[in-house]
């Protein structure tokens, strides 16, 4: 199987390698010539065997919309576009309709795994027609971890369902990180606990709160004890806000996720220990940039 992959950043670069290791022929395109296999999008399309499959891994929003519009003009009837980025699910139907006007099919796939996906595999949530999803299973099987398929891959429904599931996944992630981070701050604040780092390390085996996020928390403290090199400024990439908006629209109480989103806003006002831990965790699992103490703080107090 031969596919095109557009976007070779933190996720796309590793996905290309994992696909190739899984026996998939991949031609990648990126604006950075140092990582791109071809110089132009036209060359990418020309390199693929008909019917073509192109996987898009670029930032959500205008960038994704622009790439899909370009593909609508360059691909042909019978081809397939897969959006594996973090697009808002409401945009998927627009992309599907644009491509369908040219006879091109569309699948949206929520992808989780961050910078560790190359070694560990990715969790995948697909939305689209059963026929197209089934035909794309060699790609999904190459990307997901070894083991039972149902533990790392799900066909959640029609177009838009994959990104909706990923949106809620990321909302849950917000709440989990916030809970760990608040526990960290409480342990740091009360001087009765003399080994905060060791406390979290001891939670890694046997406890009901053990998880991969906890493992990453311990790793963050190994690399930056006391988080002295980490500012408590935490970005949000959209999915948490979208989850809260969906909860409001559907009258579903989501106090933990909502509080976690607002805590990120609060992090931009003061350097709280809990938010330093959330920033460190985002860096651990996703490679998201971490600000140094004092870096850019003055621009966020206006």
Care to describe what's here?
With 302 residues, the protein is an alpha/beta fold. The chain folds into two domains: 2-158, NAD(P)-binding Rossmann-like Domain (Rossmann fold), CATH 3.40.50.720; 166-300, N-(1-d-carboxylethyl)-l-norvaline Dehydrogenase, domain 2 (Orthogonal Bundle). Helix content is 49%, strand content 12%. The chain is built from 13 helices and seven strands. The protein has helices spanning 10-21, 41-47, 62-74, 89-100, 117-120, 130-135, 137-143, 161-189, 196-202, 212-223, 239-249, 255-267, 273-286; strands spanning 2-6, 25-29, 53-56, 80-83, 105-112, 123-127, 153-157. The chain has a seven-stranded mixed sheet with strand order 2-1-3-4-5-6-7, sandwiched between helices. The longest helix has 29 residues, at 161-189. It is elongated and about 65 Å long. Mean pLDDT is 92; it is low at 297-302.
Question: Any key phrases for this structure?
Answer:
302 residues; alpha/beta; Rossmann fold; N-(1-d-carboxylethyl)-l-norvaline Dehydrogenase, domain 2; 7-stranded mixed sheet; 49% helix; 12% strand; disordered C terminus; oxidoreductase; 6PGD_dom2; gluconate utilization; 6-phosphogluconate dehydrogenase; 6PGDH_C
